[in-house]
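check these tokens.
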Amino acid sequence: MAFYFPLWNIIASTMKHAATLLLLALFFFMLTSCSLRQAAEGAEAVPPTGTPLPGATAYPGCYFNWATQPLPDLSRQVQEAVDKSSLTGVTASAEAYGENCYDNLTNKIVYFSTMETDFRFKAAVEDLDEARLGKSAERLLEVIEALPGSSIPGPRPGYVGIAFQAGEKTVNMWFLLEDGKSALAKGLRGAALFEALQNK
């Protein structure tokens, strides 16, 4: 009998500890569930890929994702300016780059916040001579520069993309608008302008 009593005491003690741990786990689970429910009902989600932009309207329960939106009115304005210039075979478009605000509960877009405006051009050229491409880039920068500032949304300058195509060959340029203006201000033209912006 002396053997069974200590064994029983050990089993009873172990069961008491197990019951205590089970009760503690259940209590912790209930607290966690309440916290998660409160977070889902009232807390604001942390933006997965960005933060609200300066000047963006605050919206409770909103999270943000990077996005682009076409700007048809500005695109039409740029295309008209290109057509009035001496450039031929050039198509132009403009798009806003920024963030979509999604409702935290419905995942529907509430509003779009513009960060910058990017300009894109496709130009058919006879050849890919750097002096010729630099001259075309200069004229396109002059077209953008002549646009009213009020027609270009966003708190900061965007990018300029130019795709020059000669037959089956294509040369792409992608540079900050401010870099293009700076290069012109330094007096860079033709091949020198092309080389400076091609390396950006």
Remarks:
- Residues 66-198 form one domain.
- Strands lie at 62-70, 90-103, 109-124, 159-166, 169-176.
